[in-house]
Write a structure and sequence with these properties.
Blueprint (H helix, E strand, L loop, with lengths): L8 H7 L6 E3 L8 H10 L4 E8 H6 L2 H5 L8 E6 L3 H14 L3 E6 L4 H5 L10 H14 L4 E9 L4 H14 L4 E9 L6 H4 L7 H10 L5 E4 L5 H7 L5 E4 L1 H5 L7 H6 L8 H6 L2 H9 L4 H5 L12 H11 L8 H7 L5 H9 L1
Parallel strand pairs: 1-2, 1-8, 2-3, 3-4, 4-5, 5-6, 6-7, 7-8
Helix pairs in contact: 5-7, 7-8, 17-18
Length: about 350
């Protein structure tokens, strides 16, 4: 379990130098601690985010269960949901004590449940409140505080709403702004539809960066490949990949060489998955079910002979009571080894 700790001044200086060129988006019910550990095996350099945690959950719930993470996950950011400046400040301080490298405020989730709590995307209509929230968090922690937002909501004109919102939160001292380049329609569209139906407007985010060259701006929404990510880095400070990173995690194995010019942690996706087995064994001894970890691996192999058998074996065997890490080892045996895999892809 991750220990609560106080950061030294040197640690704080280091954390302020977070490299956000490539981030994996916070995704509810997906980017839990097991998913993040797996993603870290695939990329040493990507900045990874927790699922959104509400201030109520952190202040009143089981903090150890909600906030614990493996030190191997660094750099890792904690995303908060809330609208009360003092509750956010207290939650951010707790997150810092647990060792997170960044605190991110969610101003982009459009779900009905989030709206009832008066946080998420509906806060796009209350930029002054967001400013108060950011200022309170900044005053409470020494690690970076960032905001993730949409380009607008409902009938807002994005050309006006996004630029006004940015000016306001920038004045509060945010360290970076992550922009999901779609509107959010709070009525009439489901959360899933809000990720797909409103059109993407990358050009608007490019103009925002040109207007605020001193503000670190990260693009989110529709980033499906590393080639696309690399293209967007020509105009922006970073990109955030969401569903593609989760559904096709094999892409993350190329992040370090393609985005950062550094060697990949493993030669193949199969090697990376095999390296997860010691982690699984540790989790099983603490009562975690195998499926809680292996469910994040189902998209690891694409167009590789044996991929279907790999998925089928995990889907049927990992859910069984008492399933152990040998289930993953057996599933990997269906997948071609690295040399054969590379030869198949080249052909």
């Amino acid at each position: 379990m991750n220990k609560i700790r106080e950061m030294t001044e040197n640690e704080n200086k280091s954390l302020k130098k977070l490299d956000r060129r490539f981030c994996v988006a916070p995704m509810m019910e997906w980017t839990d601690r097991h998913c993040r550990f797996f993603h870290r095996l695939l990329s040493r350099r990507a900045l990874i985010y927790t699922e959104m945690l509400t201030t109520g959950a952190i202040l009143l719930g089981d903090r150890a269960r909600l906030l614990a993470f493996d030190p191997f996950e660094h750099p890792v950011a904690l995303q908060l949901g809330g609208c009360d400046p003092q509750a956010l400040a207290q939650s951010a301080r707790i997150g810092e004590q647990y060792g997170y490298d960044e605190i991110n405020l969610n101003v982009g989730c459009p779900s009905d449940r989030v709206q009832v709590g008066r946080f998420g995307a509906c806060l796009m209509a209350e930029p002054l409140l967001v400013t108060d929230c950011v200022a309170a968090m900044k005053a409470s922690v020494r690690i970076p505080v960032t905001v993730k937002c949409r380009i607008g909501i409902d009938d807002q004109n994005p050309d006006e709403a996004l630029f006004a919102f940015t000016r306001t939160v920038k004045a509060a001292g945010i360290d970076a702004l992550i922009v999901h380049a779609r509107k959010a329609w709070l009525k009439g569209l489901s959360p899933r539809e809000n990720r797909e139906v409103p059109p993407l407007d990358y050009a608007l985010v490019h103009r925002l960066k040109a207007t605020h060259p001193d503000l670190e701006i990260i693009l989110n929404g529709g980033i499906a490949s590393l080639d696309q990510a690399r293209t967007e880095l020509g105009a922006l400070d970073g990109v955030m990949m969401g569903r593609a990173a989760y559904q096709e995690p094999w892409q993350l194995l190329n992040v370090d060489p393609v985005i950062f010019g550094e060697p990949a942690p493993f030669d193949s996706a199969k090697d990376a998955a095999a390296a997860l087995i010691p982690y699984i064994d540790r989790q099983l001894t603490s009562g975690v079910r195998l499926h809680a970890v292996t469910r994040h691996l189902l998209g690891l192999f694409r167009a590789v002979p044996g991929a279907r058998a790999f998925r089928r074996h995990l889907a049927t065997e990992a859910v069984k009571q008492g399933a152990g890490s040998t289930v993953l080892a057996d599933a990997l045996a269906f997948v071609l080894d690295r040399d054969t895999e590379l030869a198949h892809i080249a052909a």
